[in-house]
Amino acid sequence: MKVTRAQLKAKAREVAEQLIGDEPLTMSPTVGLKEIGRMFGAAGHTPYQWKNRGVLPEADAPLSGNPAWRLPTIYQFAEDTGRTIVWDPWGLYAPSGEAEGGSGVAAVEDADEAPVEADS
User: Fold this and answer.
1) In this structure, what DSSP letter does residue 93 have?
2) How far apart are CA 55 and CA 69, in angstroms?
3) What does each C-alpha distance from 45 to 29, 42, 70 come to in angstroms?
């Protein structure tokens, strides 16, 4: 379950194009606790408990007074902890044999591309 730098760069370019375009932004580069819960299929207050117990990595920045994480940070968290992403907002994980954009989680098969490491 790895996301390559090339995949992240491509999605970041899409987000950047949306930011300078006239259309509303459809791909958020950050997620909050509710989105993290949805990404992992966690029930109710589980992501809040993860944050309070120090399970989640430190938030990258506050957004409107609430903690927010860059998606690469959460992809790395999933990889580091072996958690399965069940909803992938950027569609970077694809089960074996499926095109990118699937909702499952699988390793990126191109071994030449380095997996993403979240900035500390």
Assistant:
1) -
2) 13
3) 23, 8, 20
Quick one: DSSP state of residue 83? P
Strand partners, 63: 66
Instruction: Please name the residues in contact with 104: beta carbons below 8 A apart, sequence gap of 6 or more.
Output: 86, 93, 94, 95, 98
The pair of structure tokens assigned to 98 is 């499926």
Q: State how far the Cα of 85 lies from the Cα of 38, in Å rounded to an integer.
A: 9
- Whether 107 and 2 have beta carbons less than 8 Å apart is answered as yes
Radius of gyration for the alpha carbons in the chain, expressed in angstroms and rounded: 14
Task: Give residue 105's pLDDT.
Answer: 39
Q: Any idea which residue has 């992992």 for tokens?
A: 40
pLDDT tens figures, 2-27: 677 788 788 778 877 777 777 766 66
Distance CA 17, CA 84 (A): 29
